Amino acid sequence: MTTVWLARHGEAHNPRELLYGRLPRVRLSPEGRRQAQALADFLAPRPLAAIYSSPMLRARRTAEAVLATRSDLTRIRIDSDLQEVRTGWQGEPLNTLEQMGWDFYGHPRAADDESLQMIHDRMQRWLNRVLRRHAGAEVLGVSHGDPVLILAGTLRGLPLVPDRIFPQPYIATGSLYRLRFDGHGECREVEFLVPHEQAAA
User: Fold this and answer.
1) Crossing angle for the helix pair 30-43 and 57-68, nearest 10 degrees?
2) 89 within 8 A of 114, measured Cβ to Cβ
3) What pTM was estimated for this model as a whole?
4) Which of 49, 108, 174, 200 is the 20 to 30 Å CA partner of 139?
């Protein structure tokens, strides 16, 4: 079996309450750092063969927290397929998004806005590489809410539509999916975990 741990980054520092998307220099908040440490502590006993991260700062800092607890790994592999959603709505106030039900996929704003299918395809591309490179091992990928939910949801057989793929309430920052695959690359288990809630209990 191959185990892929797929994490959403820790809480971002977002005092202006904007849809930060791919805006640069969005770091972790103090709570986000706590969540990243809880993720690192949870994964510390696991024999990770590699840590992958989105290029975004908040994801890299989350991945770095995991790396800092380990003596068996020396680097994080940055992979653009784990990137945050590309949308022309980034930088807009969150209340603007709330008024449209957060459905920026149904209301694209720029010609290069990503669709659900585009996000799914790049996340699946990353997964295929991981299953090929690390067959039989355990791997961590740190990404973002929508990409994580799109991959995990479709592996569970959910249709690629917003009201099915995105749960209400939305998943917490710092949460984690465990995805287990057999030797043929078929997904056999999808488990959702929130390490920082377990740590606080």
Assistant:
1) 40
2) no
3) 0.96
4) 200
Q: Please report the DSSP string for the chain in residue order.
A: -EEEEEEEPPPB--TT-B--TT-TT--B-HHHHHHHHHHHHHHTTS-EEEEEE-SSHHHHHHHHHHHHT-SS----EE-GGGPPP--TTTTSBHHHHHHTTT-TTTS--STTPPPHHHHHHHHHHHHHHHHHHSTTSEEEEEE-HHHHHHHHHHHTT--SSHHHHS-SSPPPTT-EEEEEE-TTS-EEEEEEE-HHHHHH-
Q: Are strands 138-143 and 48-53 parallel, antiparallel or unpaired?
A: parallel
For residues 125 and 112, give the distance between their C-alpha atoms in angstroms, rounded to a whole number: 19
- pLDDT value at position 100? 85
Whether 81 has a pLDDT exceeding 90, the answer reads: yes
Confidence bin at 196 (pLDDT 50/70/90): confident
Q: Where are the domains of the chain?
A: 2-86+114-200
Contacts of 51 (CB under 8 A, 6+ apart): 63, 66, 67, 73, 75, 76, 77, 139, 140, 142
Any idea which fold 2-86+114-200 has?
Rossmann fold (3.40.50)
Look up residue 108 and give its two tokens. Answer: 């694209």
Radius of gyration over every alpha carbon of the chain, rounded to an integer in angstroms: 16
> What's the pLDDT tens digit per position in 46-77?
999 999 999 999 999 999 999 999 999 999 99
